[in-house]
Amino acid sequence: NLGFQYEEDYLYCEDMRVCDLLNLKDVSSPVYVYSKKQIEANINKYKTAMKNSGRNIQLSYSVKANMNPSILELMRNHGLFLTLVSGHELRLALDLGQEPGKIVFNGNGKMNWEVDLACRSGVLLNVDSIFNMRQTIDVCKAGGYVANVLFRINPDINPNVHGYVSTGQEGSKFGISADELEEVLEMATTFEKIRVVGLHCHIGSTIREPEKFKQSTRVLVDLFNKLRSRFPDLYVLNLGGGLSIPYKSQISLPQKCKQVVQCEIDKNDDQEIARLYDNLLTSKLTLSTFLEAIKPLPRGKEIFLKLQEQVPSEDKNQTKLMQILQSFKQCLVPEPNDLLSSISDIIPPEAKVILEPGRSLVGNSAILLSRVLGTKLSKKKNFIVIDGAMTEVIRPCLYGAYHHVELAEPSRAAHLQNASDQSKLVWDVVGPVCESADFIGKDRLLFTPHEGCSIAVFDTGAYCSSMGSNYNMRVRPAELLVDGEKVKVIRRSETFEDMMKLYTNYYCFSQ
Ligand code: LLP
Fold first, then answer.
1. ipTM confidence score
2. Distance 462 CA to ligand 1 centre (A)
3. For 215, 369, 421, 424, which has the most beta carbons within 10 A of its beta carbon?
């Protein structure tokens, strides 16, 4: 077993029942629980796609998504490069024994000591601006280093994602714009200690459309071809990361819809529907134009009717169907294979390509396991208050992101009421942090949980622990790595003393 699945209403991580993990010594709630096999499966998906592409592709894990050293070690053992954005991430990678030649150092604002460490160690260095080029040259002069640099290009592409995670459009703080490029190239040419080895771009995160990667790859490849005679060492094309994951894949109805459409397409080999469906998934068609387009087709009508069966009959004007399909669309996210098959034929065979995903390697590998503190019912809203909060999962509050929430064990409260699916209520799932932005999920259909019931927030492997905070003096939780029936504590929980030891005048510790 890999990842997370339910058996008789109990959630399992690989072969471990997750509610039992909270009874282990030294483990308290909330706690992040990782599946090792899920991470390995994610790596293998990329590796298979890379092999099929027929191109020279290297996978580089974006450490910012999750910097737990045990996870980095796993990545290293599978031969991945590491992409970093700070001097401390670089120190960690070097400490773990990662070879400098297998490290990419990125960032739009690097401190001198960080550039110095990068150049001294000999990592691949992404240059992001004119001032970053000048800084690199100065550091190389002072230290007598040769720097292997990639230029991060701003290709001006709208990746169609939340504005906070869009990074390659005009007006973005990242990358070298078309206007500044020549000056940077000129500087690199005049100083012989700068070895220009590659080009880089990263247009954003949570991207669902392979077409976007194709656009950015085209920009980079054109430039690559143009610059090769000028920079004879140029061989790397770093295409960034950014592939999304299906955060909504656990919602049950859309899953059924997905199966209906997929199964009809497979069964009937209907090219036209497959083409329309493809356009829906890549957002070339809106949902309503998709439905309108399939309805008149002989097989389309049947699919439409089957989809209709998935919604309550009283929903005459099918707003529910629309809503369901809308979220169903979001269940479907391109996989590494879709990404690579859309770009491999435009990659020059002589180039070495680097892909640096974070989320799609670790995002689905963890849950935040919490306990229910209590419930509140009112006319306007019902709340499930859990002991996990925005301090552990900030993505809903920061980006309005969806994280699936589900009870991790049968509710004893629901059992007493002899519950059927109809007795589920609509809840906001919130944490104890003193702030209304502290919510994990809104309007979720769940059984009434008993107090102390374990509850899981899904897909918290990327940008959750790494974006955690101590707000309200909450301690950062422990992290567990499950491997079959084995459980390893890969980070212990922080304590009050851990937090206080940095406050130099605190009386207990200044004695
Ligand atoms: N390469 C570069 C240059 C990046 O800036 C990033 C992410 C990645 C690779 C990895 O992207 P990924 O494959 O993980 O999408 N905190 C946000 C995500 C910020 C991503 C920043 N850059 C979130 O929680 O969604």
1. 0.99
2. 9
3. 369
